[in-house]
């Protein structure tokens, strides 16, 4: 029978993303280091990391936001939640390459076994009851950290069953031998992984939607005047050790001082369009070598124009987010691009703060850029302390791919007070957004809720109303274009 368009499995168009070995590696590392627990090597006791439940919610939500941005780029439907446990799971999955010898395959339209369905439906009812009441069964008040921990399976497992983890196991057991959903290093390859997590995120969102919007009325005494983007390779700077200082000096000279109030949208270095392209490399996994395609961003700098209107120096935290224009009203679809301490803005001054795209707080640091560096990520780290240094989103997936003709996004920059937030960057290791706490017992390095200022419902369900009139926030239009070529600023061997 000839295959008609209706026979095409549209999920195959997302394989490049789901099967990306470094995306898989990120997810595995994150599970080892940040999710749930670690073991104290002295006491041999299980230790839950600071804010592990909140991190569970935030990390998966960020993965989903990125996944949906890629789906939208391809005009595919957004991820549908797997919320009917009894319905056949339309998406089948056969592990890629040599993984098929290790993990089971799942046929399209498979169903979960009935006993499991009854069990997880019961857990869901209990969780929804708790959300309804605002309290868990033992009277403990719900907060995002506890809710995440309960749903993930880290807390109150006897009562709430650890719905998230239970679902993973249940789905993995559909096949003759356990499917990829049973193993963190490969789970996100399966389309059902994303559907299951959309379901879990929606459940958690039921509680979040009952909360009040953030109150930003007590905003810091700084005016964020502009965010300017420029491609790294086009700037008149060198790309050796002093690159960042040269870029900062260029920014101050071109966009600061006497030029601070000038419109620079027609400046030859300024762009409103970011770019991505696909590269390919050979990759060996379980003895099989295959040629894989992976996404790569064109490197850029941000230049933030900031005015301190007070007579005291002010330490700023910058928070940068990106969302496809079509999804801008969907709070959970905003992608964190960066979060950092932007230095001290002198009293009554107009300053340009310069930031390289490769420093991003979400990215595994130092970033891996060349084909050879990407290979380093393929080993499995079983030691959580070593894995900390591997934690973070892969640099090559920093930006969503966008579209051939360009895809419209909104860029949000939000400034908060570093003296309250304390977002550190001591060393260029790991990711401070997804790795966070360096040791088992240390605190997560940001006092604000994860995803702040997008952690609470929008005012009147409108992102524009939420950020309108704030001195410390700015929203800009940017486009992301998927292109074929550009001049690299580093050696990609
Ligand atoms: Cu999961």
UniProtKB/TrEMBL annotation:
Signal peptide: none annotated. Keywords: Disulfide bond, Metal-binding, Secreted. InterPro entries: Di-copper_centre_dom_sf (IPR008922), Hemocyanin/hexamerin (IPR013788), Hemocyanin/hexamerin_mid_dom (IPR000896), Hemocyanin_C (IPR005203), Hemocyanin_C_sf (IPR037020), Ig_E-set (IPR014756), Tyrosinase_Cu-bd (IPR002227). It is found in: Secreted. One of its GO terms (cellular component) is extracellular region. The keyword Disulfide bond applies. GO terms for molecular function: metal ion binding; oxidoreductase activity. Residues 190-201 form the Tyrosinase copper-binding domain. PANTHER family: LARVAL STORAGE PROTEIN/PHENOLOXIDASE (PTHR11511), PHENOLOXIDASE 2-RELATED (PTHR11511:SF4). This is Hemocyanin II. It comes from Rhizophagus clarus.
């Amino acid at each position: 029978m000839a295959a008609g368009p209706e026979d095409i499995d549209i999920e195959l168009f997302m394989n490049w993303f789901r099967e990306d070995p470094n995306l898989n590696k990120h997810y595995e590392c994150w599970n080892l280091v940040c999710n749930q627990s670690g073991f104290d090597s002295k006491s041999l006791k299980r230790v839950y990391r600071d804010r592990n439940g909140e991190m569970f919610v935030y990390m998966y939500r960020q993965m989903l936001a990125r996944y949906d941005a890629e789906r939208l780029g391809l005009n595919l439907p957004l991820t549908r939640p797997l919320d009917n446990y009894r319905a056949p799971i339309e998406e089948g999955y056969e592990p890629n390459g040599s993984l098929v010898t290790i993990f089971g395959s799942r046929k399209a339209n498979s169903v979960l076994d009935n006993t499991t369905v009854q069990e997880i439906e019961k857990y869901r009812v209990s969780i929804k009851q708790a959300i309804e009441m605002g309290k868990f069964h033992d009277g403990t008040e719900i907060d995002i950290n506890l809710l995440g921990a309960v749903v993930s399976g880290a807390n109150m497992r006897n009562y709430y069953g650890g719905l998230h983890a239970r679902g993973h196991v249940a789905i993995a057991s559909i096949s003759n031998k356990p499917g990829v959903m049973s193993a963190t290093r490969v789970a996100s390859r399966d389309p059902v992984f994303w559907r299951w997590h959309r379901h879990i995120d929606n459940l958690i969102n039921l509680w979040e939607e009952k909360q009040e919007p953030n109150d930003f009325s007590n905003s810091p005494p700084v005016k964020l005047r502009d965010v300017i983007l420029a491609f790294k390779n086009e700037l008149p700077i060198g790309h050796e050790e002093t690159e960042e200082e040269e870029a900062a000096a260029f920014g101050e000279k071109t966009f600061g001082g006497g030029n601070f109030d000038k419109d620079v949208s027609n400046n030859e270095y300024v762009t409103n369009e970011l770019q991505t392209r696909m590269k390919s490399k050979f990759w060996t996994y379980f003895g099989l070598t295959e040629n894989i395609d992976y996404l790569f961003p064109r490197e850029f700098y941000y230049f933030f124009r900031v005015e301190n209107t007070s007579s005291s120096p002010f330490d700023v935290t910058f928070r940068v987010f990106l969302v496809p224009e079509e999804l801008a009203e969907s709070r959970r679809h905003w992608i964190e691009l960066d979060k950092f301490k932007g230095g001290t803005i002198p009293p009554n001054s107009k300053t340009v703060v310069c930031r390289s795209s490769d420093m991003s707080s979400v990215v595994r640091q130092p970033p891996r850029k060349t084909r050879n560096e990407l290979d380093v990520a393929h080993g499995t780290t079983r030691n959580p302390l070593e894995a900390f240094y591997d934690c973070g989103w892969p640099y090559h997936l920093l930006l969503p791919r966008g579209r051939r003709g360009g895809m419209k996004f909104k860029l949000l920059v939000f400034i908060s007070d570093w003296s309250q937030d304390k977002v550190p960057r001591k060393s260029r290791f790991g990711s401070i957004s997804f790795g966070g706490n360096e040791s088992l017992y240390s605190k997560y390095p940001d006092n604000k809720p994860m995803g702040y200022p997008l952690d609470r419902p929008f005012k009147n369900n409108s992102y524009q109303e939420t950020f309108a009139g704030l001195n410390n926030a700015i929203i800009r239009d940017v486009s992301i274009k998927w292109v074929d070529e550009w001049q690299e600023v580093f050696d990609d061997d």
